[in-house]
Amino acid sequence: MPEGHSVHRIARQFERHFVGETVAASSPQGRFAEGAALIDGRTMTQSRAVGKQLFLEFDEALYLRVHLGIYGAWDFGGAVSRDATTRASRGRMGQTGMRGAADDTVVGEHEDSLASIGAPRRTRLRMAEQETETETLEGFPPEPVGQVRARLLTETAVADLRGPTACEVIDAAQVQQVINQLGPDPLVDDPDEGEERMVERVRKRRTPIGLLLMDQSVVSGIGNVYRAEILFRARLDPHIPGSQLSDETVRDLWRDWRYLLGVGVDTGQMLTMDDLDEEARARALRSRADRHWVYKREGLPCRVCGTHIVLEMAAARKLYYCPTCQR
């Protein structure tokens, strides 16, 4: 499932290529025909992510709300650009260290552009949990491929939505109702206020912290990968009830989530290992197997203590942890 960093990156793509443009909206699949008709021909005025929720605002205060869920993805095509992801994976991104700011240059000005200067080329970029360039487009706009729930089209770019959990047109009051049910997002909320909200929501619950971090009403954007990695980085037992944690422990979790979310948005990868040398960082950006402390490493030795990583089911989701480091 796409986690918070992916949705923020998708919002950034819409900000770059759709905001300020008149959008032709349609539903090739047919399931979103009524909603598409409401925003067809309108100008997109804002693109915003809150946790795993995407809100695309159109004139007259109509919003397209999208939650990708487990299977959802956006395919962008036309004169669109990548950002840091490709340069990072090829080792051309500024190596400032894990806690340094990533280069945010618009890639359309460089050789990694999907429509590079001097040799115009239109392509399709799929953005979900992972980001992949899937094909070069011979014409524009391309024909929809597969079950496209919603298509948003401008003169130069197209975005096709497939497989979302939620796709609806709502008004400003309904947007606020959705946001009111969400926990704080480090990229949206004031950091100090968000921290206090998370402390309050965790400390009053007897639910294990491994479940609370996945509860979008407690904190926004954390999914299975970040849950496992944040808990390991804190050396925290996922089974401890939130009510038994100290305020400072919860504050540390918030601050680490804020940091990791920033890394994810900058690089396009859920890169959770710190202090990597240049070779190890390049390897981690290329391969998930070299990117995480515990996620999907069940049965393998812990990178710190050598104990085999444990996998168990928690609320129907896979939970990974080290029984020695996290006790």
TrEMBL record:
The keyword DNA repair applies. It is an enzyme of class 4 (lyase). The keyword Secreted does not apply. Coiled coil: none annotated. It catalyses: 2'-deoxyribonucleotide-(2'-deoxyribose 5'-phosphate)-2'-deoxyribonucleotide-DNA = a 3'-end 2'-deoxyribonucleotide-(2,3-dehydro-2,3-deoxyribose 5'-phosphate)-DNA + a 5'-end 5'-phospho-2'-deoxyribonucleoside-DNA + H(+). InterPro entries: FPG_cat (IPR012319), FPG_N (IPR035937), H2TH_FPG (IPR015886), Ribosomal_uS13-like_H2TH (IPR010979), Znf_DNA_glyclase/AP_lyase (IPR000214), Znf_FPG/IleRS (IPR010663). It comes from the Bacteria. One of its GO terms (biological process) is response to oxidative stress. Its cofactor is Zn(2+). Residues 293-327 form the FPG-type domain. CDD domains: AcNei1_N. Keywords: DNA damage, DNA repair, DNA-binding, Endonuclease, Glycosidase, Hydrolase, Lyase, Metal-binding, Multifunctional enzyme, Nuclease, Zinc, Zinc-finger. It comes from Microcella alkaliphila. This is DNA-(apurinic or apyrimidinic site) lyase.
